[in-house]
Amino acid sequence: MSDQGDAGSDDFSGLTGFFFYAFIVHPITAWILRPGRFERKKSIMYAIAFLAALAAIKTGLEMQQRGPNYYGLLDVTRSSSPLEIKRAYKKLSLQLHPDKNPSPDASDQFDRVKQAHDVLMDMEFREVYNKFGAEGIKANKRFNESQFLLEAAIYYVSYGMMAFMLTLGKSSGDARNWIFTGLIAMLVVEVVVMTSQTNPFPTWLMPQTTEYDFIWLLKSLFPAFLNGCRSLGAFLYVDMDAQTRKLLLALQEQNKDILLVLRDIQIGVQTVQTHGVAGGGARP
């Protein structure tokens, strides 16, 4: 996946995705989960399948729009040696050279391959690219713990506040807990990934995915997770206070019936006793 777009476009895309899920997808999911529309288990399965399919399609389209990253462009992996990168570049440069490539954007393709080669051949630039993408190279960015923590705090506090506002009320209590748990887990993963000296993932797992790409993917999927929690949390919510009041009212009604029966018995006993005493007094 490519990171040609600047950080501003990524932020705009994330914000657009948030509003898309919050104001379009969430009402559709609530419609699927409306009581009585489907069986309870089927409603949950349909909602989860809908959210998962939509998130996969949306993220897939965004990844396609971004295009391959430098590793994917050269068809090498994070663990490829400079010699392997050089061979891959030589092969592609022969294919994409403007003199041999009839494509209208042949020059741009060739320049991008050359840029990928230049970055990945330089170990310092390669490390910066893995952490911050192509924009990190352009901005000559380096990892700064204070700046990283500040940016992370802004992102996660902002999403935490939005999540809190969207989950106000008793019926959203579980959803709020799930969302905050997801935020904390994502923050921990981002801190581990970004502060590691090397990519913490094994080479066989997503061999062409950089730390920057992985964090982008997490943040791209989070709005779907947030709104899925909102919908399912509201659907699964059980109001214990209302259930308790309902149970107490039922017990009260039962007690009324029991009291009426006891009263009838008491009246019957008194009637029998009265007739018994009257009969005994009438005897000679």
What does this structure look like?
This protein is mostly helical and 284 residues long. It has helices spanning 7-32, 40-66, 70-74, 82-96, 106-121, 123-138, 145-166, 173-195, 211-236, 240-282. The longest helix has 43 residues, at 240-282.
List the keywords.
284 residues, mainly alpha, 0% strand, elongated
* Class by alpha and beta content: mainly alpha
What Rg do the Cα atoms give?
Answer: 33 Å
Biggest sheet character: none
Helix content, binned percent: over 70%
State the helix count. Answer: 10
Strand content: under 5%
Mean pLDDT metric: 84
Care to count the β-strands?
A: 0
Low-confidence spans: 4-8
Shape: elongated
Q: How far from one another are the termini?
A: 114 Å
Helix/strand order: HHHHHHHHHH
Furnish the topology, listing elements before pairings.
Layout: H1 7-32, H2 40-66, H3 70-74, H4 82-96, H5 106-121, H6 123-138, H7 145-166, H8 173-195, H9 211-236, H10 240-282
Helix pairs in contact: 1-2, 1-9, 2-9, 4-5, 7-8, 8-9
Quick structural gist:
By secondary structure, the chain is mainly α.
